[in-house]
Amino acid sequence: MSLEATVRRSTSEKIIQNVQELFANRKIMRAGSVVSMYWPIKGELDIRPLMEALHGEGILVALPVVETKAAPLVFRRWMPDTRMERGYWNILVPPAEAQILTPDAMLVPLVGWDMEGYRLGYGGGYFDRTLATLSPPPFSIGIGLQSAQLATIYPQPHDIPLNLILTEAGLQSDLGG
């Protein structure tokens, strides 16, 4: 395993620990709650072990799925034995017959972030579009690297700030919610 892979794994493990502490301390999730997570792409932090841990605690895990380009995401239920299939952009997603869920909380990957809770992703606008349509909005937590912090992302009118930003260094931005 390369040094980069070793560092990435230990960073992902630290993020998972930080999420578990946040959920425990703030009582954000409980058995029966629904959390949307993500299947990592392009070097995003790998929090898949957390999916199994939360599932084991009775929390329902969902993964975001693009069913139609430029439309809000849908959230399909994931379980450890779920047969994954390739979706848009070749991302692994639960199959079409998986149960559709509405998340109480969302863990959202960050390419970049600022202290106002705004994020940069890969430019599709899917998370902002989805957050704008969900009522009540889910508690949104950005997951990213400390080194990805920017002074500002110059938010646009359609950008929606996340409730929290978590990095390997801990809680960075807390807009509550």
TrEMBL record:
Entry annotated with the keyword Nucleotide-binding: yes
Enzyme class: ligase
Listed Gene3D superfamilies: NagB/RpiA/CoA transferase-like
Origin superkingdom: Bacteria
GO MF term (any one): ATP binding
Keywords for the protein's UniProt record, in alphabetical order: ATP-binding, Ligase, Magnesium, Metal-binding, Nucleotide-binding
Keyword RNA-binding assigned: no
InterPro entries to which the protein is assigned, alphabetical: FTHF_cligase, FTHF_cligase-like_sf, NagB/RpiA_transferase-like
Pfam entry (one): 5-FTHF_cyc-lig
The protein's required cofactors: Mg(2+)
Annotated substrate binding sites: 44
Gene Ontology BP, a term: tetrahydrofolate interconversion
Enzymatic reactions: (6S)-5-formyl-5,6,7,8-tetrahydrofolate + ATP = (6R)-5,10-methenyltetrahydrofolate + ADP + phosphate
Family: Belongs to the 5-formyltetrahydrofolate cyclo-ligase family.
Protein name: 5-formyltetrahydrofolate cyclo-ligase
